[in-house]
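Sample 1 of the test manifest.
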Amino acid sequence: MRHGKNRFLIGALAAPLLLYGVFVVSPYAQAFYLAFTDWNGLAGQADNVGFANFTALWSDGLFLAALRNNGLMLLAVPLLTIVLALFFAALLTMGRSDRHGGFRGSGAYRIVYFFPQLLSVAILGVLFQFVYTPNNGLLNGLLEALGLGSLTRSWLAEPAWALPAVMAVMVWAAVGFYVVLFAAAMESIPRDVLEAARLDGAGRLTTFRRITLPFVWDTVQVAYVYLGILALDGFALVQIMTVGPGGPDNATEVVGLTLYRAAFTYGEFGYASAMGVTLFFITLTLTALALRATRRERVEIA
Amino acid sequence: MTPPPTRPSPTRRTLLRGATAAGAAGLLSGCVTAGGGDDTEEATGAVTDENPLGVPDDTGLEVVMFNGGYGQAYTEHAAELYEERHPGAEVDHQGVQRVGETLQPRFVAGEPPDVVDNTGAGRLDLAQLAASGQLHDLAELLDAPSLDDPAVPVRDTLMPGVVADGTLDGAVRFLNYSSVLWGVWYSTSLFEAHGWAYPETWDDMLALCEEIGQAGIAPWTWQGKFPEYMVDPLQSLAAKTGGIELVENIDNLEADAWRQDGMLAAADAIHRLVTGGHIMAGSEALSHTEAQNAWSNGEAAFIPCGSWLEGEQQEVTPEGFDMVMAPVPDLTAADAMPFGALQGSSSESFLVPAQAANPRGGLDYLRCLFSLDVARGFTETAKALPVVRGATDGVEMSTGLASVAAAVEAAGEHVFGYKYRLWYAPLAKAVDDATGELLTGRLDPEAWADRIQTAADDVAADDSITKHRR
């Protein structure tokens, strides 16, 4: 019996594992190999150059600027997204302890929050290009209408504002998904626990801090890892929206863009692979760190 | 891919004998430098007067063309012509948007098509392709008799500079089809309405900018998101001031080339547009479409662009706008080049891969493409200047195209071009970044030159970058 089960499992897994091997594992392996060569993407052969590509990375101003910008995004984007998403999710599920499931219309809000998730990144980029455009853009128009004309600027053309402008789009696009995710987690909190807290005289804030947050912490942890990976990317938005792209003056350069340019514009596929491998290890390390740093006691419902 | 021909093909000896008429030197150099093509069986046919390149009959031809702003009518026209000349052959004509992504794996696998129009944002790096031995030598084609007049070789039907543009390390690797010239564009109707005339010196330009500003129109706008649009007038001013010597110093990565007097004077001239407040507010954040549309709407008087602007703006330009292109004004009284001097280059790079299955067919396809008939059609459908001599004779042209043709005529031998953008892409990026900063006033001309010079010195010192000289 046991034998037959194994055979069934192997039979069922063979096809997906093969696909995974061919389309995921083998490109990774090739990228690792290419990172140690000077392949130009066109020649039939590539020479081994050892660690030269990796050492060159640390004196490449463009790559360092990209790392810095991805680092800033890594600090800001997950934090802002999670705080906003927790806030909205808490509002959506608020009052569960007194009545049935949230206030009136919370279902509709949940759908509305989810809308940005349905747009492709390319469309987002083009859309926000119009929001930020200086002379007849939505944002400057809004500021004018509010009498804040002095705050209008060329958002994407000023080094200090370009990266925050891109990050705002990332946050805007991501929040909705995590609202839904957190709201679902919050709804699975047993009602009697919330009621007990209320009877003990806990206010909304205390309830959120002492009851809600510990219950949804697992979900927040997962969200943090996902958002971290999102923040290490950013390629599509930067490529579509920004000056240059990656500008002004490398203010919005991200590793994905540096990599893309090295490979497809400069024909340095070996060097670009080295960037990819570096990014791979950075992502891996940060994920491990994030999971470790956010480790907390699991709330067990006995 | 097409299979190798099964019919008896001529021996190497008959091929050589036949090719002597067309210039054996060309053929020999073609064989020697064909690089990666050595291991592929080359399909050949009998060499005759009718078939000077020895194209095999009955062998199909695969051409992959960039489907961009110029359309495909002309490459399809050439395909029809080829099929007429070789009734047994069928041309597989494909239009793609991202040439590089489509063809890179095929080049690596050694199975490229027979002709490629390597153009557009996703094109392959020509210098890298050549360095990898992926490009067929085109000397043979240039020495072959042209389709229109067997007494004239293809080489002599082309405008000056085309062969030089396509030469990489001593061999002709690609031929560009469209002549591109850069200048400053304005609307003749707008200028007539206000009684303005195009200025011939930069001082007059600045004075006119004051006047235009007072009329409530922004004197200049530019495609801020892509600073290379403003690099063109800047480096044109520099070339006119310092002459071809200045250009060569830049391209040869000479020490302090970016700090030459002419270059600094040109950067200062452009910077004066910024300090004088002559640039439309917000231009630095506009895409090329946004800036060009603002200009077509009459919100700004001047915009820098290449000769493709009229075609690009066709849909949005109001009736009677009558745009024309003019060369950049003189910077000093002692400029090395006269007023009409133009920055010119050619684009739409056609090449025959070294490892193509039917390279002789590929060469003959290009012979059809560079014929007068196809070139005339290109002028009409693509609204651009082909590099074939006499292609615009008797063709009715719009104001923009006519102004470009007249500018070429006026410039005569004074058409110049920089090579560093093609040779050293990272340097081009540094120039664009710095120029973007110059145009927002965050860098002054001195700091602009220093930054670019540092980038140029880095390229010069980097052994992993193949160096070229002119």
